[in-house]
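Recap slide: Condensation domain-containing protein, sequence and predicted structure.
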Amino acid sequence: MTDIVSLGEPFSSRNTIALTEAQQHRWIESQMGKPTSKTVALELQGPLSIDILHRSLQQVVDRHEALRTTIDRDGTAQHISSALAIDFPLISFSHFTADERDEKIKQWLKDENARPFNLIQGPLFRFSLFRWSEQWHLLVVTVHRIVVDSWSINIFFQDLGALYTDASKGIACKLEQPMQFREFIQLQAQMDQSIEMSRHEQHWLQACTHPLPILELPIDHSRLLIKTYHRAQQSLIITTSLYRKIKHLSRAYNSTLFMTLLTGYAALLHRLSQQDDIFIGFPTSGRSICGSESMIGYCSHLIPCRSQLAEKPTWIDYLKYMKQNLLSAYEHQDYPYARLLNKLNLPYDPARPPLVAVTFDLEVPITTPLMNNLEVKFLQPLILYSGVDIHLNIIEINKSLLATADYNLDLFDSATMQQFLAHYQNILTAMCDAALQR
């Protein structure tokens, strides 16, 4: 029988610890066939030292226990290896033309992201290096989401860049020792016993009083009996001029850019669904514990934001309403979403995601690591494997906004999602115009 350390016990020196509630949900998703990998590709131009890259990758794995973790067969515990030697294949693409290479890389990345991990045997990461020429390489990193989140991916590459640069300059590593995920879990367990956490729980249970709405957007294809994960993307550039108006609107009403953009998204969903009660989810880093900002581990979770319209408000009144909604959500963001789902005990529907069917994020781009004598850039991810019907992602690019709808291909056609994004832009325009008329 596996010796599992409970979340409430000290286990700083133990190598087997219980999964967090969020990890348990990830484990269940992986058992149900949901894609649970994250693949990131880093293009490296210049005189790359493969030996130093190998040693630097090994050091990142050595620094972070989460990367040396495997999962118990029954999804209750995680085991931390004291050491794990890495390896990665070097794949030559130098014999292909540029068009052939790009197409093969695109297909390879898609296949790689869909390739499952063995959670029991591990490792829960894969590294691959493509060589296009002596001066041009592509590093591909794939990690299972049960041990990392988006914040962790940023930490991974920042550590890699610092370690590679120091090693290539022949100087000692300057990185401080990070917090380990097991330490984070222990501190989180202490927070769970606090009065503050009880207050958070009370807030969310009150915010999720029954009846809970089920979002019914108009769809192009009948919903299957079991939820699928066939995804596609459509994008739209929000022009520089509209972006300026959105920022002006945000400043005028003491709102953040995130609040304004989410308000427009909520208004669109109300209009399309013809429902006056909806939920939208958005991610939080889950790293309020001091020291966790430099840690690799699965900490992030969704915050469910409920929008209820008793009557038809003006655009400005609705923005003010959503602002207060979001401020309240931020105040109680430390309460784990997985625990809320457990507390709500919702009836299981294999055709739909629980509680939140649509999500939103104003993405902060991954910081490009600095690597000595190399030009470095990230390739755009091909598909975002989210489990919701629609995920709307906004990112700032060249003083404009790129809005990308990642959607379930078995529910929506591409033309529908193009119209969806156009309607979103129209609503943002209407909000800005209303503010100018006041």
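DSSP finds eleven helices and 14 strands in the chain.
Residues 1-13 have pLDDT under 50 and may be disordered.
(End of recap.)
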